[in-house]
Amino acid sequence: MKAARVDWRYRLAITSRALAGGLGGYALAAAVTAALTLGLMPFMPRVEAVLTATLLSWLVYACAVAWAFYARTAWGAWGALGLPALALGALAMTPRWLGGA
Q1: Nearest one of 91, 95, 97, 85 to 31, comparing CA atoms
Q2: Which of 14, 80, 81, 84 could link 24 by a cystine bridge, Cβ 3.0 to 4.6 Å?
Q3: Angle CA 46–50–51, to nearest 5
Q4: DSSP states of 39-95
């Protein structure tokens, strides 16, 4: 049986997806943690809000890594992880930008 040759573009796509899952998933999980903490703080003490948001962010991170390899293209993986991370990060930074914190 003849071995199949792996093209460099395929290796680059897999590397890009792995980086999207690792780095983009981390950024998305961090942004979800910050935004969810701010959303939960009116309903529970600050420590519990941070702990709850942090625990839920592990689920977000796992789903983000899975999505990086489920997406149709590597660009789609980067976009689906990067855009929500930027939006949630901006949402979490809004109180500081407005001078509230």
Answers
A1: 85
A2: 81
A3: 115
A4: HHTTTS-HHHHHHHHHHHHHHHHHHHHHHHHHSSSHHHHHHHHHHHHHHHHHHHHHH
Tell me the pLDDT tens digit for each residue of 16-49.
999 999 999 999 999 999 999 999 999 999 999 9
Q: Give the global pTM.
A: 0.86
User: How many residues can be counted in the chain?
Assistant: 101
DSSP state for residue 2 in the 8-state scheme: P
The rounded Cα 28 to chain-centroid distance in angstroms is 2
